[in-house]
Design brief:
2 helices, 10 strands, disordered N terminus, about 35% strand, signal
Length: about 130
């Protein structure tokens, strides 16, 4: 009788996985969820890296830089190269990251550079007071 329970349990797990796959958000929906409740400000050419707390890649769409309460969204040229499993490697010569800079994309598993993206303007998103 025990094997039947295992089969039923496995079937339930597969069904749960299929339901999750159906509700997967598109990259634009993921970005909208990240920015929910925030208002876009005037784009800026540079951000201060010293203030950045984290970065997040949205597949084939954007890089989100978190500076406390402000999120800066950068939609690089050729964003199709972005993969949320990449490591971002940035070489800067000051404390600023600017729209003229490039970011190398390193495969997290294989640890080899698989490309780069050219940054564009950074759009700040803040929550209204």
């Amino acid at each position: 009788m025990r094997p039947i329970h295992l089969i039923v349990g496995a079937a339930l797990l597969c069904g749960a996985g299929m339901a999750e796959a159906r509700t997967r958000l598109t990259p634009e929906q993921q970005l909208a969820k990240i920015l929910d409740g925030r208002v876009a400000g005037k784009p800026v050419n540079c951000i201060n890296l010293r203030n950045m707390q984290s970065t997040q890649i949205v597949d084939k769409t954007a890089i989100v830089y978190r500076d406390g309460r402000t999120l800066y969204v950068n939609r690089p040229a050729y964003a199709d190269s972005l993969n949320d499993n990449d490591i971002l490697v940035t070489r800067t010569y000051s404390s600023n990251l600017c729209s003229i800079d490039t970011v190398d994309l390193v495969d997290r598993g294989a640890r080899f550079q698989r490309g780069f993206v050219s940054l564009s303007e950074f759009v700040p998103y803040t929550k209204p007071r």
